[in-house]
C-alpha cells in the first residue's frame, strides 16, 4: 500500500465557473496505475471548492441562481474592509462547499454514478490558475 | 495496511428522505474485522448525499424546511429543459451537501458523538435503490 | 504505510464561533513525524463542523450573517420539541457543513493555500469542549 500525490492545474474564469475535471483525474489515475483505493481531490486556496454534479450547462446556471440567493456576490461584505478585494462572497461560498472530496477507485476507475462528475467550482472574482491535489491510496 | 471496499445497498423513498445508516456501516466494519483506521462513506449517484445528524424525526422535518427554502423542488429549474425529469432541485441539493464523508474508526467503532449518526439523504423525486461504498483503510 | 489517530481538544464559546485550528494540527503532524500522506480532520459531535476559510474576523462575521439567513437560531425548530434544548439550528448547520475534511500533507506541511486555514465551527448554543480526531495516513 502506498500514497501518491498528483498535482493537476486548471485555468478558470472565476466568477463561480464550474468545470468538469473527471477526465483529467481519471487519466492521472490510469497513468499512475492506481487500481483499487481512494482518491482525495483537494483544491488549494480559499475561494474554490470540489463537489460532484451532473455535467449540464443548464444545471450549472441553476447553481448560479442558488449561490446568488444564498451568498450574493455584490453585497458589501465586511471582509471587503480587510483587503478591499471584493471577494467576500467567494470565500463564504468556498467554506460552505468545502475544499475537497474522496472518491473510491475500483478496477482503475473513479466509482461515480453515470451522471456524477467531479466538479471544480472557482468562486473567485477573476480568472485563476488552480492547483488540484489528487492524493491516492492504493 | 490494506484497503477494502464494502458495497451496501439501501432502498429509499427519495423526496429528500433521510436514513440513519450507522448500524449497517458499523456491522460491515465488524464483519470485516476493521479495528483502527478510517471509513470513507460515499454514495454513488448525483442526487444523494452523506452527512451526519442526530436521528430525530423532528429534526429531519426541520431539514426539509431548510432545503425547501434554499433549494425548492417545485421551481422550474433550467435543468428540467435538459431531460424533462423535474429533479433539478435534487441535483443542486446533492452538490451542496456533497457525496461523502470520512469517519475515523477506533477500537472497531465509528468514532462518532453520542447523537451523531451517519445519514443518507436521497434528494431524488422517486424511490431509488442506492449503492453506498464504504472504503476502509486499516 | 501506517495509520495514526491524534486527538486534540478545543474549548469553544459555541454560538457558531469559528476557531482557526491549523497551527495545532500542523504541530501535531510535526510531533508525530508525518511527512507525506493525508490528514482527515473530524469533529466528534452533531453540532460542529470543519471546513477551510481565511482567518479574518470580518469574514467570520459575514459567515454569521449567512448562517442566520439560511438557518436562523431563534426559530422554533421542531427539534426543540424533542429535547427542549433549543439547538435545532445548531444541528442543521452542522449537517450542512459536514463533520470533517481531508487535507493533503506534503513535505511535512498541510498543503493549504496561503490564506486557507482549517476552521472549527461550533454551532452549539453554549460553550463546549470539542474533540478533534486527526487521522493520518503516511
Concise structural overview:
With 138 residues, the first copy, chain A, is an alpha+beta fold. The first copy, chain A, has helices at 22-31, 57-70, 79-83, 88-97, and strands at residues 3-12, 17-20, 37-43, 48-53, 100-106, 109-110, 117-122, 128-137. Chain A is elongated.
Description of the molecule:
Three copies of one chain form a homotrimer. With 138 residues, the first copy, chain A, is α+β, with helices and mostly antiparallel strands. The first copy, chain A, has a single domain, classed as Sandwich (Jelly Rolls), CATH 2.60.120. The first copy, chain A, has helices spanning 22-31, 57-70, 79-83, 88-97, and strands spanning 3-12, 17-20, 37-43, 48-53, 100-106, 109-110, 117-122, 128-137. The longest helix of chain A is centred in the middle third of the chain and has 14 residues, at 57-70. The first copy, chain A, is elongated, with a radius of gyration of 16 Å. Chains A and B meet through strand 4, helix 2 and strand 5 of A and helix 3, helix 4 and strand 8 of B.
